[in-house]
Structures are given as structure tokens and as C-alpha cells.
Amino acid sequence: MSSATASSTSEICSDDSATETAFDYQRSAELFPTRSRKPRRNPVTYRRFDTAAAAVRFAIEELPSDLLLGAYLQVDEERFGSVGIRQLYESPRYPLKRRAASGQ
Predict the structure, then answer these.
(1) Distance CA 100, CA 84 (A)
(2) Are the CB atoms for 29 and 77 separated by under 8 Å?
(3) What is the pTM of this model?
């Protein structure tokens, strides 16, 4: 993947108004974590979710931060990089209860 492609993927969904008004958290979603350079006991790979809300929650609350950095979420034909995923999670329209804030 070229650096231009990687950069554009991580910046998708940077328009707050588009994120706030058009996104449907009930659509199914696919999460593609980046490959970790560290060997893992239980590697995290591609996952499909019934709802985008569940995928966003998993990405932010469960995915190791080094895997979130290069990850992307695909919902229908839209892709959201790590910045976009975080915006979706922090949106007032996010429908699920968020984990209590900790020193991430």
C-alpha cells in the first residue's frame, strides 16, 4: 500500500457534518485491522459485524491501539480509517453505551 493510499484511508470521514448526519450505525460492517509487527498469542484478523455500532465499539474498546492505527472499517462502499472510526465512536449519535474513560 502506498503512503498516499494509507494516508487517505486514515483520513476518510474527516468531515464532521457527513459523519453526524449520514452514517447509519445499524448497517453491517467489516473491520480490517492492520497487521501487527509483534507476534501475538491470539492474532486479530478481519471481522464482520451485524452492526457498524458493534464494529466501532470493538475497534475502539477492544482492538489493541497499534492495530487500530492502520485499521479501517468498511460499511457498504464507505471506508473509515482510524480517525473516522474514532469520530463515529465519539459522535453524539453513537447508539451504544461507551466504556468508562480510562487512561488510554
Answers:
(1) 20
(2) no
(3) 0.72
Helix (H) or strand (E) holding 31: strand 29-32
Q: Write down the H helix ranges in 12-94.
A: 16-22, 52-61, 65-68, 82-90
Report the amino acid identity of residue 62.
Answer: E
24-55 pLDDT per residue, tens = 999 999 999 876 566 555 566 789 999 999 99
| One-letter amino acid for residue 56 of the chain | V
Residue for cell digits 449520514? 22
pLDDT of residue 30: 96
Contacts of 90 by beta carbon, 8 Å cutoff, 6+ apart: none
Mapped onto helix, strand or coil, the DSSP state of residue 56 is: helix
